[in-house]
Amino acid sequence: GNTNFGEQIVALRDDYVYTNEPFDTTSMRAMRERQIRHTVRGGTFHPKFSPGGLTDVEYLVQGLQITHGLQNPDLRQANTRRAMKMLAEYGFLSQDDYIRLRKAHTFLRWLIDSLRVVRGNAKDITIQPDDSEEYAFLTRRLNYGTDRERLRSEIARFTADIQDINSRLLD
């Protein structure tokens, strides 16, 4: 496409997104709660939309980018992984938080990709009950063998890490 036009669009976006206005965490959290209510069936885990899921990583990263991106244009990355790296390099994510967040992000991407294969459906990635044959297949697909408890434990650990970092950094 037209390079000049693309640059104009990016400049308009930056003027709109990166302002001196504080990031509205309250509105973001309210929006996130509505999203969870509308996309996650009670008693199930959806690795993208459930609390501590991939969406919470994206909201956290984008909230930090909006907060610090005006003074630090290098943070304006469209790629979540690159944005996390830049947030760590600039000190907005501690090294420990960066590593935990990166590992959780990698795990959730791997989980989602594996669920798409197991389910045979790119859209339906809700994890089935852990006593189901589908969960057993997912456990094997993720190289946990027959250790369903280890998979449950890792899901719990990574989602807890995301929620912890999110609650501390976006107050």
Structure, described:
It is built from 7 helices and no strands. It is mostly helical. Helix 4 (80-89) packs antiparallel against helix 5 (95-119). It is elongated. The termini are far apart.
User: Cα distance, first to last residue?
Assistant: 40 Å
User: What's the β-strand tally?
Assistant: 0
Total of helices: 7
| Element-by-element helix/strand order | HHHHHHH
Specify the structural class. mainly alpha
Query: What is the 3D form?
Result: elongated
CA gyration radius, whole angstroms? 18 Å
> In terms of per-residue confidence, which ranges show pLDDT below 50 for 5 or more consecutive residues?
none
Strand-residue proportion: under 5%
Largest sheet: none
Helix content: 55-70%
Mean pLDDT: 94
List keywords for this structure.
elongated; 171 residues; mainly alpha; single chain
Task: Write a brief structural summary.
By secondary structure, the protein is an all-alpha fold. The chain has 7 helices and no strands.
List the helices and strands and how they pair.
Blueprint: H1 3-17, H2 25-39, H3 54-68, H4 80-89, H5 95-119, H6 133-141, H7 148-169
Helix pairs in contact: 3-4, 3-7, 4-5, 5-6, 5-7
